Amino acid sequence: MTSLSLYQLNQLIKESLRQVIPATIWLRAEIHNITSNYSGHCYLDLIEKSEHNDQIIAKQRATIWASTYRLLAHKFYSATGGTLQAGMNILVEVSVEFHELYGMSLNIKDIDPTYTLGELQRRRLEIIQRLKKHGLIDKNRQLPMPRLIKRIAIISSPTAAGYSDFIHQLTHNPHGFTYQTTLFPAIMQGPQTEESILSALASIESQNSGCPILSPCFKGTSEAEGVLHSSFLTPHFSFDIVVIIRGGGATSDLQAFDSEQLAVRCANFPLPIITGIGHLRDETILDLVAHKNLKTPTAVAEYIISRTLELDMYLLELGDRLQKNAILRLEQEKNRLTSLSAYIPQYALRLLTASDNKLTALQHRIELKTADFIAKNRLLLDRKSDQLSTTVNQQLQQQQNNLKLIETKLQLLDPQQLLRKGYSFTTHNGKLVTSITQLAPGDTITTTLADGTIDSIVK
Length: 459
Description:
This protein is of the alpha/beta class. The protein has 3 domains: about 5-120, CATH 2.40.50.140; about 125-315, Response regulator (Rossmann fold, 3-Layer(aba) Sandwich); about 415-455, no CATH class. The protein is about 45% helix and about 25% strand. It is built from 9 helices and 16 strands. Helix 2 (about 65-80) packs across helix 3 (about 115-135). The longest helix has about 120 residues, at about 295-410. The chain is elongated and about 180 Å long.
């Protein structure tokens, strides 16, 4: 049985690859990881993902030797303004290398930067289309921008020059306006930018949550013509706006601001977001979904100051208008009072005269009504008096007859009358005896007759 050693097998693979694969080929892949060491060599992990999901279906190591890497890095930067980073799709010329000890790897010899630019633009357009489809491009812009911006949540790197410029511009504004700024530190370039900004937004929202207080807002046909109405109330949070700022840098550093996840988060954020990412030529997807995007942190500060100045001037104008209206109204009321002071005595005299005439007429009517009422009721009283006299006489006669009848009955019931007719009654110890059971032998009883009493003893 014929057999090969492992070394012989790897030599066979190496020879077979050399015969089948050309010396160099152009390869499309995505950079998964990229590092460079002290010697200047660059090491990459290249991958390919499934078209249907993000599952990795192929992976291979690649190397750019130091001498080649210096040339390719300069070429790529000149075309794109940035450096090779993880997540980029690249088109590179490679040679397939196979070493008996270290296995297969790719040696990158050249790169086509225009392919990477095209891929980035394609992905950017796809994200923008999805954001438009879901109505997210203008969602944050639909939030009302506060007329007075006082409390500002800042997402930036504390060491960034753009942050220092922003704070300096706000603090040293020529109008003496003051602002409350709170920094939420974030990494503003490199692969951790997206995650860092999302974390800062979460911190701002957590401080901004809770039951909102109601405070007055301005309403009018335009911002310049707004009028303060206590009946129109808006929620009051910990911050008025969020600003995302950074200084200048390479164009490739802006890739994190083309993140779909970051764009969706900012579009749905409950506060207006202003961006000042520091690039005069480029507009990121984050700029598209922000409430307002300005090119530099300084421009953001100037915008905030200009809004405060606009409100300050409006309030001064409103104060002047109120003062003029108050003076005009006082003058009108003064004239009105003067007119009233001359009119009131005449009016009062007319009222008194009219009231006096009315009272005289009313008094005359009352006298007539009273006389008529007395005359009518005098006749009625006379008739009632006659009727009452007749009724009283009849009642007296009837009562006299009733009394005579009662007197007759009482005479008939008089005990003396009964006794005179031969009746008597017997008592024992002062009590009337009505039954023999009330008595016992030896009891003394008294019998009363018409002309006296008889005492007896019961045998």
